């Protein structure tokens, strides 16, 4: 599991994710737009086992079981799952991702 930041654009559903501690890149991405407001969210990144069907559904079910809302979810070019949650539940989502990565997923 790795963490980063995501820039949530208030008008568009897209966001820009960067590696942990790279808030500067996120800020530069925002500065290149004409938008006046931006919210920077920490992200949770993990790799799902591509050979096991149902990994995405099982992981998102674990988040749902903990009442964690997913604001944005996508995959990067290195096959990492990127999840942006409510700020107040980020630590819980990161814990679930760490448990998943450690091998406690129900479909592994």
List the helices and strands and how they pair.
Layout: E1 2-8, E2 15-19, H1 23-31, E3 39-46, H2 55-65, E4 70-75, E5 81-85, H3 90-104
Antiparallel strand pairs: 1-2, 1-3, 3-5, 4-5
General description of the model:
The protein is of the alpha+beta class. A five-stranded antiparallel beta sheet has the order 2-1-3-5-4. The longest helix is centred in the C-terminal third of the chain and has 15 residues. 21% of the residues are buried.
Summarize the structure.
With 108 residues, this protein is of the alpha+beta class. The chain has 3 helices and 5 strands.
Strand content is: 25-35%
Rounded average pLDDT: 77
- What is the strand tally? 5
Rg from alpha-carbon coordinates = 14 Å
Number of contiguous helices: 3
What series of H and E elements makes up the topology? Answer: EEHEHEEH
Largest sheet strand order: 2-1-3-5-4
Low-confidence runs (pLDDT<50, min 5 residues)? 8-15
Amino- and carboxy-terminal Cα gap: 16 Å
Q: What is the molecular shape?
A: globular
The share of residues in helices is 25-40%
The structure class reads: alpha+beta
Sheet with most strands: 5 strands, antiparallel
